[in-house]
């Protein structure tokens, strides 16, 4: 099939560094591995910085022009066989897919879409309604996490399927594997961008957590950088000298090599969507300690590859971290399980199998909608 691939939040093929861009690229690669022709939709970023009605009106005008241009182009060339939108929500609604899918009678699929009931009233209500209209128009919606499924559940209905695709991770070559030496001091590592909001809050929580286990002999490497560094770095200043190394932003291959020289991956992950970095750390063979927050539970095997503690319970986090630091046999077992989990259960090949099912369901649902008398075939 020819698949039109749209990313309203971020242009996945620009030079930006983010987990959603990585996942978008992975989805495109998985679809192409199935033999499909994937065509990025030539559209600008549709992110809304505020609820200003004029900003939304401007994006809607841009969308109308693009819809008209694509309609004319496709009528001349032939339309794609399916529309696929990745990651849209009230700040980045899909203003193209529902219109073009309906106009050409092609299946409409989304991945990582989300509804925001608390935004259904007030200044963001018009934006939320646009998302809900797109959800209602869908033939299949892919969700990555249990939290996402719960938000999408009201949109499950005849002709609109909800299908799980567990978050997965792709590598150009097999990542290095962490050594199992009984090194001292034990080496902790974290990777995250430094920016205001949930990332900064996780960094500040990590500083407080590590202060609780300052009596143990450990070192922390921090991979990442960003506009929030001036606020984040001083939060670790109270730890004993020499405990924290700031490595800055590293290219992916260098970051993977750095991970392999450590013993544990620690990242609180407050309100994390899911976090591909957890899968990368596990692929290298590192056990994980994190909060059970957001979608983190959907990218680890609790108790087998990771220890998750209740969100915000910093004392429990410190206790879990100390327990692993004191138990080399358990760290080794969890590390080996982590690599198996990430490389086998969360592989692109496994994801491609799931995507093939999604596309088949979406095609069947759209076909049935185009022939109402065949409603019994709706999924």
Walk me through what this model shows.
The chain is α/β, with parallel strands linked by helices and 379 residues long. The protein contains 12 helices and 12 strands. It has a 6-stranded parallel sheet with strand order 2-1-3-4-5-6. A 6-stranded parallel sheet has the order 9-8-7-10-11-12, sandwiched between helices. α7 links the parallel β8 and β9. α6 packs across α10. The chain is elongated and about 65 Å long. The C terminus is likely disordered.
Give a quick precis of the structure.
With 379 residues, the chain is α/β, with parallel strands linked by helices. It has helices at 19-33, 53-77, 97-104, 125-137, 146-152, 198-212, 229-232, 252-259, 276-284, 314-325, 328-345, 348-370, and strands spanning 2-6, 37-40, 82-86, 108-111, 140-143, 161-164, 186-191, 218-223, 244-248, 264-266, 288-292, 306-310.
Q: Identify the strand order in the major beta sheet.
A: 2-1-3-4-5-6
CATH class of the largest domain: Alpha Beta
Q: Compute the gyration radius: what is it?
A: 22 Å
**Strand share of the residues?**
5-15%
Number of strands: 12
The succession of helices and strands, N to C, reads EHEHEHEHEHEEHEHEHEHEEHHH
Mean pLDDT: 95
Which stretches of 5+ consecutive residues score pLDDT under 50?
374-379
Class from helix and strand fractions = alpha/beta
CATH architecture term of the largest domain: 3-Layer(aba) Sandwich
Number of domains: 2
Largest sheet features: 6 strands, parallel
Q: In terms of quaternary structure, what is this?
A: single chain
* Principal-axes shape call: elongated
CATH topology title of the largest domain: Rossmann fold
Residues in helices, as a percent range: 40-55%
Counted by DSSP, the helix tally is 12
Q: CATH-wise, what's the superfamily of the largest domain? A: Glycogen Phosphorylase B
